[in-house]
Specification:
This protein is α/β, with parallel strands linked by helices and 364 residues long. It is 40% helix and 15% strand. Bound molecules: 4'-deoxy-4'-aminopyridoxal-5'-phosphate (PMP).
């Protein structure tokens, strides 16, 4: 061992980026033993015959080999299941989170900015920070609709390379008006990525806009359709963009088991869509029951979750957890979310548990 050398060994404080040192770890709540209504998962297991089939596929999978780098069979299954425009390419990500990261890496020139609206999916801001980009955002109106003039002014002022617009939006649950989204697409100086994570629970899609406008990309995930554990998202858009972004994708980002299972599941897309449709019905039943409770405001939702406003959000969140139900307290995330809690729509049984727990916690 040599004598002490100044600055050796390096410490995280001496070596790492200051913005990384300043980050708070992303917290995922422990749901052990709780009814898990915090993360917008599909509550239904695979239909029995499919579970057995996927078991057989996994047993026969060549997990000693690297996965197919281009995942051609899986992309073909996505095209067959969904109306991906013929003039658009598909890029696959290990969840759409990875796609957000790839897009950010691709535009990360010095001084470049990522834009979105506020409140929205937190990962847009987080990944801008991870990749050393400026993050700019424009508040929604108090009713969570887009303030298009304000968004246009932000685009003009900040000239972001990339803007993310989630519709239906998380955590507000509402979808944005088509005319507003189109105006933003035409005003955006760079790429507009429309994040349709919750498309299966609403009626709108902007895939046609990705086909019509060269600066529009549409991102989707299968996480809300019963495949959150497989980690699979995709991006749709013009080959001139996707071909460049694909260079940053690590070659084997979609693993063998995900490729096999998702390809098979997409062949049964009608079953997945039927579960989503059931959840839409449950959402409306749950919303009506919640609206009947005293002191609970329920916002309209086109997603698989409901945003509620209550007088004492932290107390109610804790009261629900004590009664075995985990939802998400978003009341501190943005001033427009004051008093707000977000609850994923579950199975009928889970929703009954949520309602009963909420009633008891409100009365306590
Ligand atoms: N976009 C939005 C709007 C989301 O709410 C989520 C998940 N909460 C994602 C993207 C990420 O989904 P995943 O990484 O699971 O594909």
């Amino acid at each position: 061992m040599s004598a002490a050398r100044p600055g050796w060994p390096a410490t995280p404080q001496s070596l790492l980026r200051e913005d990384v040192l300043a980050l708070a770890p992303y917290h995922v709540a422990d749901a052990t033993g709780l009814v898990k209504l915090d993360a917008m998962e599909n509550p239904y297991p695979l239909p029995g015959d499919l579970a057995a089939e996927i078991g057989a596929l996994a047993a026969g999978a060549a997990i000693n080999r690297y996965p197919a780098p281009d995942a051609r069979a899986l992309k073909a299954a996505i095209r067959a299941a969904l109306a991906v425009p013929a003039n658009c390419d598909i890029l696959l990500g290990n969840g759409s989170d990875e796609i957000i990261q790839l897009l950010a890496l691709a535009v990360a020139r010095p001084g470049a900015a990522i834009a979105s609206i506020d409140p929205t999916f937190v990962m847009f801001r987080m990944i801008a920070t991870f990749t050393g980009l400026r993050y700019v955002s424009c508040p929604l109106r108090a009713d969570f609709t887009l303030d298009v003039e304000a968004v246009e002014a932000m685009l003009e002022r900040e000239r972001p390379a990339l803007m993310f617009l989630a519709t239906p939006n998380n955590p507000t649950g509402n979808a944005f008006a088509r005319a507003d989204v189109e105006r933003i697409a035409r005003a955006a100086p760079g790429l507009l990525v429309i994040d349709e994570a919750y498309y299966a629970f609403g009626d709108a899609s902007f895939l046609d806009l990705a086909a019509a406008l060269p600066n529009v990309l549409v991102m989707r995930t299968f996480s809300k359709l019963g495949m959150a554990g497989l980690r699979l998202g995709f991006l749709v858009g013009a080959a001139q963009w996707l071909g460049q972004i694909d260079k940053l994708r690590l070659p084997y980002n979609i693993n063998v088991l995900t490729q096999l299972a998702a390809t098979r599941l997409l062949e049964r897309y009608a079953d997945l869509a039927a579960q989503a449709s059931t959840l839409r019905g449950e959402r409306e039943r749950l919303a009506a029951a919640l609206r009947a409770l005293p002191e609970v405001e329920v916002f309209d939702s086109e997603a698989n979750f409901l945003l509620l406003r209550v007088a004492r959000p932290a107390e109610l969140f804790d009261g629900l957890r004590q009664r075995g139900v985990l939802i998400k307290n978003v009341s501190g995330a943005h001033r427009l979310l004051a008093g707000c809690l977000r609850a994923t729509v579950g199975t009928p049984g889970e929703n009954v548990r949520l309602l009963a727990a909420l009633q008891a916690a409100l009365a306590a």
